[in-house]
Write a structure and sequence with these properties.
Layout: H1 3-26, H2 38-53, H3 69-81, H4 85-110, H5 113-125, H6 127-132, H7 139-154, H8 158-171, H9 177-193, H10 216-244, H11 251-257, H12 264-279, H13 284-294, E1 301-302, E2 305-306, H14 312-331, H15 345-359, H16 363-379, H17 393-411, E3 416-420, H18 423-428, E4 440-444, H19 449-456, E5 464-468, H20 483-493, H21 501-508, E6 510-518, E7 521-528, H22 529-537
């Protein structure tokens, strides 16, 4: 190992430690929170099944065919350190720090150290990345490996490409989009950039590899390497099929995420949402708009030389991955969740930061404003409906449910509780962190009028109701008066209106004994009237 490589290895270790400690300090108040939504619904049960039985196929929840890398990682750490939420969230922060280091090294490689520092800081503070950093989902882990795979691609290191992209698809299957996009774009890049390769480096960074000038044999090798992750994914799906009889997860999962999403209008609407998540969501527009305006300015000259841009070949590579993810995520995925775009949003951040540095004199001030706006978006919800897992609203949800379910457990320990998922799992599975003992639940789909009227005819099956807002409800929604948008949301994206506690109590024939609200969310406990009658007869 050369002195330069040895120094780089140690500096990477130091940077990783700094990123991890910074994330750990910022997430300290969140580390002991119980599990939230999809964590509780799939990933934690799947990892726990692996811990207890050694099976890669979960049995306490229907298998979604997600590759098992992250679940195996959590199970291994639980076996070594104990099954606690703090261990889980710290373990995920470890992956997040690794992803940030990947963003830093990638930006440093294609631009320079200044761009790398600013890009890593913006990525770390971007609300979706920050909120997902300590959550037991697989998307951020897949993104982290994609960043390292892209770095290996830019540096033209085939073995590392194969390793990183294979790990990415074993974290989440959709990560195959990155190597597939790079493979498909190679012939186009060869035509566009042969003979003209604008370098991406700053003076302290080695020049990026010119893929268009590679020998045919080497290009064939790179093609094989980019296909290799698909082979890895095929092995997993083959194993899953042999064990379950299904390739892509249980039929309901496949129906929700693929079969119901293939309507042309639904795809067009989802594409609009994906583009918004890519360039504007949660104050990201401040960065992308600033970069767009910066394109009207001439490049800044340092010592008579224009500041370098990221090479056109690298920008094209980034663009192909971004387009592949945006289009694919508009076609599949029943829920249009922003976390699915985590592998590509940091690429947009790198390009925008590099553009600002090249063309704006006070670019550091612009980046600082963007970073502050990201911090603000962590605490201030947008004036439209959004997924509460995308900022610290998820913490409000968890605390609301913790307090309400502690009230139910303390006051009504033997009650049969009417509720909906995920509270049904929170009450019946103590290992999720909400209750000390399992409670009996009677589950309905949601708290719409239709579901509650149907439940009212079955009041003998429950003595208590725990109801809650299943979606964020902005106080003054921007698109509330556009009836067509409401119809589209209902038809294509499963939107519904939860009845407020008072109305729900009237339908169910009970009274509200507990109610709490927080920033567009609420939870309530309804006691059925027959409980009161029993108390009178005593």
């Amino acid at each position: 190992m050369t002195p330069e490589a040895d120094s780089r290895r140690y500096s990477s270790a130091l940077l990783f430690a700094l990123f991890f400690l910074a994330l750990l300090a910022l997430h300290a108040p969140l580390l002991r929170l119980p599990y939230f939504w999809d964590e509780a619904g799939y990933y934690i049960p799947a990892a726990r099944d692996l811990l207890l039985t050694g099976s890669l196929i979960p049995h306490s929840t229907p298998s979604n065919a997600h590759p098992p890398l992250v679940m195996a990682y959590l199970a291994l750490l639980w076996k070594a350190l104990g099954y606690t939420a703090a261990v889980t969230r710290t373990a995920m922060l470890f992956i997040s720090a690794f992803g940030l280091l990947g963003v830093f090294r990638l930006a440093q490689r294609v631009a320079n150290t200044e761009v790398a520092v600013a890009s890593a800081a913006c990525t770390a503070l971007y609300p979706v990345f920050f909120a997902q950093s300590s959550m037991a989902h697989v998307d951020l882990a897949a993104a982290a490996f994609v960043f390292w795979g892209l770095l290996a691609y830019v540096e033209d290191r085939p073995t590392r490409m194969a390793i990183w992209f294979s790990l990415a698809v074993l974290a989440k299957e959709t990560a195959f989009l990155a190597p597939l996009a790079l493979l498909a774009s190679a012939p186009v890049a060869k035509v566009l950039f042969s003979g003209t390769f604008a370098t991406a480096k700053a003076p302290e960074v080695r020049e990026a590899h010119d893929f268009s000038r590679a020998a045919p044999g080497h290009q064939n090798l790179r093609a094989v390497v980019l296909i290799f992750p698909l082979f890895t994914l095929t092995l997993w799906y083959s194993y899953h099929y042999l064990r379950t009889g299904f390739v892509f997860g249980n039929p309901e999962f496949l129906r929700y995420n693929v079969q119901t999403t293939l309507h042309p209008l639904r795809i067009l609407l989802a594409l609009g949402l994906r583009l918004w998540q890519l360039v504007g969501y949660l104050n990201l527009y401040l960065l992308t708009v600033a970069a767009a305006f910066a394109m009207w300015l001439p490049p800044i000259r340092d010592h008579g030389m224009e500041r370098r841009r990221i090479s056109l070949h690298v920008q094209f590579s980034f663009l192909t991955v971004v387009v592949a993810y945006t289009l694919a995520m508009a076609v599949v995925g029943g829920a249009v969740l922003a976390r699915y775009m985590l592998p590509v949003v940091p690429l947009v951040i790198i390009i925008c930061v590099s553009t600002l540095r090249r063309r704006v004199l006070y670019w550091r001030a612009v980046v600082a404003i963007v970073a502050l706006a990201f911090v603000g978006a962590l605490f201030v919800n947008p004036p439209y409906g959004f997924s509460i897992e995308d900022n610290l609203a998820y913490r409000d949800y968890i605390l609301l449910h913790q307090r309400a379910e502690a009230f139910v457990e303390t006051r009504y320990p033997t009650a049969q509780v009417l509720t909906a998922w995920p509270a049904s799992d929170e009450l019946s599975r103590p290992w999720l962190g909400y209750v000390a003992r399992p409670m009996q639940v009677f589950r309905i789909e949601d708290f719409t009028a239709e579901q509650l009227f149907a439940a009212a005819d079955l009041r003998s099956h429950f003595s208590l109701a725990l109801i809650f807002s299943t979606k964020y409800e902005p106080p003054h929604p921007w698109f509330e008066r556009w009836r067509r948008w409401q119809q589209w949301k209902t038809h294509y994206f499963g939107y519904h209106r939860d009845l407020p506690p008072a109305a729900a109590a009237q339908i169910l024939g009970g009274r509200v004994v507990y109610e709490e609200h927080a920033e567009g969310q609420w939870v309530a406990v309804i006691e059925m009237e027959r409980i009161e009658e029993a108390k009178v007869f005593r």
